[in-house]
Amino acid sequence: MADDDRNVDANRGEDRGSGPGPAVELAYAGIGTFLKAPQRDVKALSDEQVAVLGVPYDGAVSNRPGARYGPAAIRRESGWWAYLGGYKGGLTNLQTGREVDLSAISIADCGDVPVFPMDHERTGEAIRTHVAAAASTGAFPVLLGGDHYCTYPAFRGFAAGAGHDHVGLVQIDAHSDTVSESAVFGAEFHGSSTNLIAESDRGDYSSVAQVGLRGYESPGFFEFAEDVGMDVQTARDARERGIEESVRRALDAAGEGTNSIYVTFDVDAVDPSAAPGTGTPVPGGLTADEALRVVETLGADERVGALDLMEVAPNYDPTETTPRLAASLLVTALERRFAEVGG
User: Fold this and answer.
1) What is the pTM of this model?
2) pLDDT at residue 189 is higher than 70
3) d(CA 212, CA 265)
4) How far is the C-alpha of 333 from the C-alpha of 80, rounded, in Å?
5) What are the angstrom distances between the C-alpha of 238 and each of 205, 250, 292, 310?
6) What is the largest CA-CA distance in the chain?
7) Cβ–Cβ under 8 Å, residues 171 and 177
8) In terms of DSSP bridges, do strands 107-112 and 50-55 run parallel, antiparallel, or are they unpaired?
9) What are phi and psi of 263, to 5 degrees?
10) For residue 277, which phi and psi values (nearest 5 degrees)?
């Protein structure tokens, strides 16, 4: 450690009682679990608050592949917050103005779900059973994607494992993913996950709320959304309404008459200037600050029972900004839910 680093750590400890604990580990050291959490088999969870699962699968994309590398990249970037969490006495989140203690989150990293690159159905079944196993313990499942098809089996697994008959979906995304069937990709790919969820026995279009849509959809899309009762807010709608208010509206729409809410955050909801590392980038998206405000609002709502962050394709982003933002979004959501101590 450089002398300047020693001085910084010493000053933190002397002036604010917040120096690193004896077991603090540097961000780039150690085993690369999410937030450097202990590794657990998903069947060996006991009383953990949060169970993290990676899905290194991108066999159902329609554009650029690479989201298979997302889970490892997000885990690696989360090491910085794990390092900060080692400081005694907690931290002040200057973004939210709240006092937090990241070390207070009881979290386990359950590793990666087995994937079968040429078989999306077999991969989907593995996702479903692993998420169900985590949810059955009462843990809050967090899924690191992976392409957006993976949200469909994860949603089903969460609903079944948690014992919920009807689960709402809040989708933060550039695309609606409501394709019923593609002549090229079939009925099950990353552009059909929301349709599959809405037509499943645990979901319904009237319990789907989307924020951040832009680009292009099929002719008559808004008429379709109105007919099926889906709540849609484009990126422009959300910006004009106010991002926190838009998310609260989405939560209320997805939460009405449901047992819980599953949140899926496709990183392409964020503008490519802030998150270029994704398979289908679309200009005009959320800023990094708006994305953080989104997850702050989501994390504070007790109706949310599971969360995924999908479509991080780090090889398109040599600056590593995209997986770093993804890790920040997840940590922010989790600290709002589990780690706030005041403020």
Assistant:
1) 0.91
2) no
3) 10
4) 16
5) 20, 10, 14, 21
6) 65
7) yes
8) parallel
9) -110, 130
10) -85, 75
Residue 257 has a CB neighbour count (10 Å cut-off) of: 10
Residue type, 255: G
d(C-alpha 82, C-alpha 144), whole Å: 17
Q: Is the pLDDT of residue 70 over 70?
A: yes
Tell me the C-alpha to C-alpha distance, in Å, between residue 67 and each of 61, 75, 142, 192, 255.
Answer: 9, 13, 16, 17, 29
Amino acid 226 reads E
Q: What is the pLDDT of residue 31?
A: 81
Instruction: Give the count of beta carbons closer than 10 Å to the beta carbon of residue 135.
Output: 25
Given this model, what pLDDT does residue 23 score? 64
User: For residue 245, what are the contacts with CB-CB under 8 A and spacing of at least 6?
Assistant: none
Q: Which two tokens stand for residue 164?
A: 């919920």
In this structure, which amino acid lies at residue 149? Y
Instruction: For residue 44, report the phi and psi dihedrals to the nearest 5 degrees.
Output: -110, 10
Closest CA to 168 of 247, 257, 298, 228: 257
At 22, is the secondary structure helix, strand, or coil? coil
Residue the block writes with tokens 């951040």: 212
Q: Where are the domains of the chain?
A: 31-342
* 231: its two tokens: 């709540």
Condensed to tens digits (0 to 9), the pLDDT of residues 249-270 reads 999 999 999 999 999 999 999 9
Between 87 and 307, the higher pLDDT residue: 307
Nearest to 192 by CA among 60, 66, 280: 60
List beta partners, residue 211: 172, 233
Q: 201-237, pLDDT tens digit by residue?
A: 999 999 999 999 999 999 999 999 999 999 999 999 9
The domain defined by 31-342 folds into Arginase; Chain A (3.40.800)
What's at 230, amino acid-wise?
A: M
Q: What is the pLDDT of residue 21?
A: 54
